[in-house]
Design a protein that fits this description.
The chain has strands spanning 9-11, 18-22, 27-30. With 62 residues, it is mainly beta. The chain has one domain (1-49). It has a three-stranded antiparallel β-sheet, with no helix packed on it. The radius of gyration is 13 Å and the shape is flat. The chain starts with 8 loop residues before the first strand and ends in a 32-residue tail after the last strand.
C-alpha cells in the first residue's frame, strides 16, 4: 500500500509568512510572531522539495 504524506509546514513565496499544521486545532497556524503581509494573496510553494509519496522523493530527505 502506498503511504500518502501531507506537509506539516509551509511558507509563502511572496511575503515569507511561515505556518505549521496544528493537529490539535486541525488547521494552519502562524509560526512565530510575524504574520507576513496581511494583504498578501499567499502563494504557497506546493511544488517545492516536499513529496507526498516517500518513494518518489529525490536523493535528499523531503
Amino acid at each position: 500500500m502506498t503511504e500518502i504524506r501531507t506537509p506539516s509546514e509551509r511558507e509563502c513565496t511572496r511575503c515569507q509568512r511561515h505556518e505549521r499544521w496544528s493537529d490539535e486545532d486541525e488547521q494552519w497556524r502562524i509560526d512565530g510572531d510575524e504574520a507576513g503581509d496581511v494583504h498578501c494573496v499567499h502563494d504557497w510553494d506546493v511544488t517545492g522539495t516536499f513529496t507526498t509519496v516517500p518513494g518518489d522523493a529525490p536523493d535528499h530527505e523531503a
